[in-house]
Predict the 3D structure of the following.
Amino acid sequence: MNGFLTPQSSIWWMVLIKCAVLLLIVITTFAYAMLAERKVMGWMQLRPGPNRVGPWGLLQPAVDAVKLILKEDLTPKTADPLIYRLAPFISLVTALAVYAVIPFSEPSPGNVWAVGDVNAGILLILAMTSIGVYGISLGGWASGSKYPLLGSVRSTAQLVSYELAMGMSLVGVLILAGTTSLVGIVNSQAKLWFFIPQIVGFIIYVITAVAETNRAPFDLVEADAELVGGFNTEYSGLRFGLFFIAEYINMLTVSCIATLLFLGGWNAVAGLTIVPGIIWFLLKVAFFMFAYIWLRSTFPRIRYDRLMAFGWKVLLPAATLNLIATAAYVAVRG
Amino acid sequence: MSRSRKNLYNVGALLAGLGVTFKFMFKRKPTIQYPSRKKKHAPRFHGLHELRRYGDGKERCIGCELCSSVCPANAITVIGAENSPADRRSPGERYAARYEIDELRCIFCGMCEEACPTDAIVLTPRFEMSDYRRGSFIYSKDRLLVPPEAGTGLAPDDRPNGIPSDLGRVAEIKSTVDTGEGYDATWRGTILKTQTKGLAE
């Protein structure tokens, strides 16, 4: 019994409790992000959106979950069974793992608003989201059918090329902040949010983030119209659900990163420090989530060759120039 | 710079597009919340058929089979019979002994309504006919004929504008008789053969 309550073990208990609470929050947020997307997209297309289940359609996510659980779980005969079953978990686990280091509010003495305040937090996030690509690539490849294969080939090409520009656009912020700790980056934005000096980086990041999460207009990996469903064509039931959850959680992740790195994290807007930092953080994340939905309901899917041309010929050079300019500025100013 | 290249990087056009979708978000939605609210159909809407009666309760249908011959979808089957003086079903010499409409074949064109010399067959604005079995869509006379207590049935031009008060009667019609089990397909097949015999030769 004593072993549970020693000072050393209480840290572990704290981490476990934080993980459980965070998991619950993130999954709930996913459910309602999905509902919000269907609602907002509906409004933009002059429809009311889902409104049949519960008041204002608020129970829709629960019903959808039940539906997915009850669906038949198919594995194609030509599929590689082990990798086929593993892929959705790679997607989801990497998507969730990122939340271990994301701080949601200002650290109070002796405690941080994150599972762990890692001093290289942003690097861990980038590494984890890069591994997430494997879920999509392997899932499409292991399905043993043509559309998923095309989808996974596209995902490999698209995600790899946009990840370069994304990384470059973030380095500018890291140079200005002089740290890779997410708390440190947010604290160095107390006076000036980084999206003003790093406006080029900010725009590149927002664009590449859409591409990284396979969202319209860069959803060539799924491309319902051409590839049926891309990498997830053969998946059904809960396995499809895992990919689906992972996609929305990735959306949430890149919104969190954009908030932390460019919009000042929990720093208050216009000095309104009465409102707690966590509210500011969530508002900023919600703004990005809305922007995602807005983009999806506005733009048609970009053509594949144009996507690659845009990534390599526009975004990457722009991000490189931005990085050089930022580095030169910091070097000159000391 | 080629024209297509120019379009791709036309940021102004992209922002204009975003403006359009943002504006549309606050527009009034034209959706009618269907099961709880129903659209007001025109009085002459072409929905489920009805066989009308005269004021004295006699059937208007005289079994002339004009509707059946005019039907482009071959959906109507009529077998006429002589009225007996003891039990007069219609004011004329003959009446419809059997009258069936296959609502799955029907294209709701309203030709039967136009062809009918006694205004007996009319299309009502009732449209909620969905069911689980194909057989249930073959409406026989007991389901088509206006029940005596429901009056005579209205001609399309006499109907009031708006939602008919008896729109839900389709459900009652469906629940009272279930032709799903008892329907005899061979009978209908023979009748169709005799009806189209002249045309085939």
